[in-house]
Amino acid sequence: MSENKIPYKIYLEESEMPREWYNVRADMKNKPAPLLNPGTLQPMTEEELSVVFCEELVKQELDNDNSLIEIPEKIRDFYKMYRPAPLVRAYCLEEKLQTPAKIYYKFEGNNTSGSHKLNSAIAQAYYAKEQGLKGVTTETGAGQWGTALSMACSYLELDCKVYMVKCSYEQKPFRREVMRTYGASVTPSPSESTEVGKKILAEHPGTTGSLGCAISEAVEVATKTEGYRYVLGSVLNQVLLHQSVIGVEAKAAMDKYGIKPDIIIGCAGGGSNLGGLISPFMGEKLRGEADYQFIAVEPASCPSLTRGVYAYDFCDTGMVCPLAKMYTLGSGFIPSANHAGGLRYHGMSSTLSQLYHDGYMEARSVEQTSVFEAAEQFARVEGILPAPESSHAIKVAIDEALKCKETGEEKTILFGLTGTGYFDMVAYEKFHDGVMEDYVPTDADLKAGFDGIPRFPGNMK
What are the record keywords, sorted (predicted)? Predict the structure, then answer.
């Protein structure tokens, strides 16, 4: 199909929406390493995981074999509120950059939570409801996940308890209020309401918190409260599975017009959006059917892939969760209070860590002032105010498009625009006022985190 027939926005029909999630692990030769029980160092069993997570989600977490998993009809009906999400050809950005590259982005911000997180929130809430639970607990960084989960729980009449990273709780009060509007209780973390919260505050007085802290609190409350389970917005295999709806839709929209991306870019915190976006394309690469360049983009202030170590580590600061093999900065690493709250996680999804370790994708870290410069440039020409997290992907997409300008190559670039930044105006204000700083941890800063990684035979070589 000729290029001039490619519309600015490509929408699928509702009838073309994915009916199945795609499980990239089924096509991986080297499967992600299993979660380990920190007490026995043996792989976590279904029974052990079911104390913390919903039963059906545990099955999905451990499923390395089935490539396609049916999306229940009730979840597909909920998806129709805001999906299919558009695949946008960034004609205006291309013109502004004067690049021969063709730039596309998959926009996931067209819902009240403002991000892609709702794709997994409704699935996890659905399985909790099906199990007959009263409610769920969770953590949230920037607040997109907590907002999404509160919406999903409200829809299904489940109770929702959210532990929000303290610096985000203070920086993003309006996202907190959206959660409360949907009926969730929101507690700044670390808090005095849990044993692990008290312990963290005693060891780190005045801490601004981290996702690792908030996870510890949410897990403690879930395991000590009858009828509750813990749910997580990123990192886990099950979350990447649900988020595959992003990539499956993106690929279907591209296939409609005979478009094949050369480079696929996603921001990377715990890995949910990146894993979801790349999944069907990565599947083709793993099966030898096509080749793509995959780029994970993370903040220089929390560089788990680019400067972390590949080892078994705790998923949380309080060390109450299972051990996951991942690229990590150490569960005790508490990053600076930078403004991409959703990317302030010390580790990376085990699935993505394995793919990165095996050389199927690359990673780059970027400093936050350059990220906000890219965000502003994008907003001025494409008309969407992007979330700080998403703007990491925008930064590298612009970099790659400018490389094409130098070489004359007409590469096709696809990136994930995970959400909108309308609740992130404190960050934009700091950028505009010139008071935003770039924090890059020193090797000494990172060593403190690495020193806390569990030592046992075969770990931390």
Answer: Amino-acid biosynthesis, Aromatic amino acid biosynthesis, Lyase, Pyridoxal phosphate, Tryptophan biosynthesis
Q: Tens of pLDDT along 22-57?
A: 999 999 999 999 999 999 999 999 999 999 999 999
- Do 78-114+236-459 and 134-226 fold alike per CATH? yes
Sorted by where each begins, the domain ranges of the chain are: 78-114+236-459, 134-226
The CATH classification number of 134-226 equals 3.40.50.1100
The DSSP symbol for 110 reads: -
- 11: burial class by Cβ within 10 Å (0-12, 13-18, 19+)? middle
**Domain at 78-114+236-459: CATH code:** 3.40.50.1100
DSSP letter (8 states) at residue 112? T
